[in-house]
Each structure stands twice: as C-alpha cells, then as structure tokens.
Design goal:
By secondary structure, the protein is an all-alpha fold. The chain is built from five helices and no strands. The radius of gyration is 35 Å and the shape is rod-shaped. The termini are far apart.
C-alpha cells in the first residue's frame, strides 16, 4: 500500500512539474513574444516618422530657397521701379544707381542659383526627395514585414497546444496591411 502511495505521489509530483513547467514556458514565451511585438511596432512608428521628416526637409528646402529667391526678386523689382521713376523724372544719377542695384542683385541671384542647384533646382529637389522617399518607403515596408512576423509568432504561440490552456486568454495582435506601400504613385497634370 505504501508503495502504491509513493508511486501515485511521484506520478502526481511529476505531473505537477510537467504542468508547472508548461505553464511557466507558455507564460514566459508569451511575455517575450509580446515584448518583441511592441518593439517591432515601435520600429514601424520610427520608420514612419523618419519618412515624414523627409517631407518636412523638402518643404523647408523649398521654403528657404523661395525666401532667398523672393528676397532677390523683390530687390530687383524695386530697383526696376526706382529706375523707371528716375528716368521719368530725368534723374540720371538715381537711374544709374537703380540700374546698378538691379544688375548687381541679378548677378547675385544667378550666382546663388548656380552655387546652390540642390536647393533651388526643382529637378534636383524632386530627384533627391524621391530617392529618399523610396528608401524610407522600403524601410517602412521592411519594418512592417518584421512586425507582421513577430505578430504571427506571438499569435501562433498563444494559440498552440498546450499554451492555449495557460495563456489562451491573451488578446491577439493584428498585422499591418501593406496595401499603401510599393504602389505606383498617382500622376497629376
């Protein structure tokens, strides 16, 4: 009788160890995988933010170039008006001064545009932006694919037997859809 009690007690102890080990393994596996999902989601957000910063940089470059160019164009327009007024009033000295200002500012404007083609040349701005936008789109796509892989791993872990018994009540995560990435951009006329 004592031997049977020892065998039953040993079997129950082994069963308790197996169940306890399975529970610990399931729980710890879910915690680790959930942390990976959260980290991967953060990486997607970081990649998206980097992508949006590219748009801000383009806007800033255009605005900076526009401000500089508009300043030069305003000086030239004002000098032309001063020149016309001086001619109308017969003031040769004022006309020469206005002409010199307009010509000097025009030379400065042309020099600025030649020395800073990337900041004013719209083709260069566009090309640079598109290449950076494409690279950032690829980074976002990679991060989404990585995130989706961690989500699949987590969801599979909590749904497989025997893990479902111990951690099956945890919420599943949804994958990102890639419908807006790597598609042909619309054209405008």
């Amino acid at each position: 009788m004592r031997k049977i009690i020892l065998i039953v007690s040993g079997a129950l102890a082994i069963l308790a160890i197996v169940i306890g080990g399975s529970w610990v393994s399931a729980y710890n596996g879910a915690v680790v995988r959930e942390a990976e999902v959260v980290e991967a989601r953060g990486n997607v957000y970081a990649a998206l933010e980097a992508r949006y910063v590219k748009v801000d940089v383009l806007i800033d470059a255009i605005e900076d170039a526009n401000t500089t160019i508009e300043g030069y164009l305003t000086i030239i327009a004002d000098a032309r008006e001063a020149f016309a007024a001086a001619i109308e009033n017969g003031n040769a000295a004022a006309a020469d001064e206005a002409a010199a200002l307009a010509d000097g500012t025009f030379v400065t404007l042309v020099s600025y545009m030649e020395d800073n083609p990337d900041s004013y040349n719209t083709v260069s701005l566009y090309s640079g932006f598109i290449s950076e936008f494409t690279a950032s789109t690829n980074a976002v796509t990679f991060m989404i694919i990585t995130y989706n892989g961690t989500v699949t791993d987590y969801n599979t872990h909590i749904k497989t037997f025997p893990n479902i018994i111990f951690v099956g009540g945890r919420a599943i995560y949804n994958s990102y859809e890639l419908t807006n990435y790597n598609v042909e951009l619309p054209t405008f006329k």
